[in-house]
User: Which sequence fits this backbone?
């Protein structure tokens, strides 16, 4: 079987790749019958030469590959018919801007495996860049604090080489007695937590966070049942919240009263209560001044996130009174960092970590007859049709949704 690592062609350019040169060499050593090729790219964080040094063939032509591995959407004109493709297609939530892409994949008889659909039997994601979004998001939030307060200056994350360098920068800044709230219980939240722990910021319990004052920065990691409560007062468990979000209301305001810097690392499910609304943000008791919204749901659960920001211009201000965007240095502004492609700022680390997960969780399925069902669950299209698991997308493909 021939595997090809394709060149990223989406704009703005993305330097990430599914496999680093070292991981691809490890792949070759583990599965010597596999034929591996890398498409030449001047964009990728690892040079063509770096792959050649590991004995990997670099080519301009990927037509003879069976399986093609990429990160972002492949432009329609570059899709090769009758192949197996892996990339983030951004179609599983019926994103309107990629309907034509999914139609083209069906028309070209391509088997599509979206990285987001590579899951365990229980639905848990097996691969992704979430950890790196958390790492960069937390860093960018501190950078925003420095830019607004003038107390310290951090370089942009994409000018640094690795998580290690981000941490070194953060360890050199002086913080006052900030209270930092971090939401979530997945890879994103734990990526952000790595950064807070590397800075030796004290982690405190919910009770301590809500009731105590400190002379040093502290943070609190909270999950859905900490900032939501059942309307009937019962306390059940996370699964009850996931299955019956309409039975809950937000209890986030108790945190907003005492928080200076909020890092949003949670996953927001349909039908769940908003963490805070535009009305909540107007309250005299609302204390949050800085938000790093890694989840980045627009006009959604984090009311001050009114648009995504960019790597070039990562920060904007939100005036809760007028509900409008303002300069982030404005005295009345909540300073918002809402970059929606954060792992792109750390392409080397992100690619190395992604390749590690892919080699461990996906590649074996090609050589063990997919005994865990990983490929079968992830396959979105086959023989010009949607697979049963993704048949809910038919109306979207037909333009009826």
Assistant:
């Amino acid at each position: 079987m021939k595997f090809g690592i394709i060149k990223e062609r989406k704009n703005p350019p993305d330097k990430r790749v599914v496999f680093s040169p070292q991981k691809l060499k490890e792949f070759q050593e583990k599965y010597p019958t596999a034929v591996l090729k890398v498409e030449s790219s001047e964009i990728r964080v690892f040079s063509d030469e770096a792959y050649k040094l590991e004995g990997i063939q670099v080519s301009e032509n990927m037509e003879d590959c069976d399986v093609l591995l990429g990160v972002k959407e492949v432009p329609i004109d570059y899709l090769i018919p009758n192949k197996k493709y892996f990339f983030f297609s951004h179609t599983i939530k019926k994103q309107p801007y990629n309907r034509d892409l999914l139609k083209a994949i069906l028309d070209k008889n391509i088997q599509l495996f979206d990285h987001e659909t590579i899951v365990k039997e229980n639905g848990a994601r097996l691969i992704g860049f979430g950890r790196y979004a958390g790492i960069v998001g937390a860093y960018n939030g501190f950078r925003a604090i420095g830019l607004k307060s003038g107390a310290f200056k951090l370089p942009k994350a994409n000018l640094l080489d690795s998580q290690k360098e981000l941490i070194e920068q953060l360890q050199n800044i002086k913080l006052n007695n900030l209270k930092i709230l971090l939401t979530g219980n997945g890879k994103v939240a734990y990526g952000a937590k790595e950064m807070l722990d590397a800075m030796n910021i004290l982690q405190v319990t919910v009770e301590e966070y809500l009731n105590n004052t400190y002379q040093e920065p502290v943070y609190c990691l909270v999950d859905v049942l900490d900032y939501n409560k059942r309307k009937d007062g019962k306390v059940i468990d996370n699964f009850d919240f996931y299955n019956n979000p309409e039975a809950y209301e937000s209890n986030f305001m108790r945190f907003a009263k005492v928080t200076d810097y909020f890092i949003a690392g949670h996953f927001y499910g349909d039908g769940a209560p908003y963490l805070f609304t535009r009305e909540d943000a107007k309250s005299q008791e609302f204390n949050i001044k800085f938000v790093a919204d890694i989840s980045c749901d627009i006009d959604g659960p984090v009311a001050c996130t009114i648009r995504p920001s960019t790597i070039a211009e990562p920060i904007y201000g939100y005036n809760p009174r007028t509900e409008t965007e303002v300069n982030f240095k404005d005295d009345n502004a909540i300073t918002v960092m809402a970059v929606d492609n954060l792992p792109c700022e750390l392409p080397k680390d992100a690619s190395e970590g992604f390749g590690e997960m892919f080699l461990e969780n996906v590649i074996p399925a090609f050589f063990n007859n997919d005994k865990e069902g990983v490929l079968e669950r992830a396959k979105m299209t086959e023989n010009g049709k949607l697979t049963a698991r993704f048949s809910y997308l038919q109306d979207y493909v037909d333009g009826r949704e």
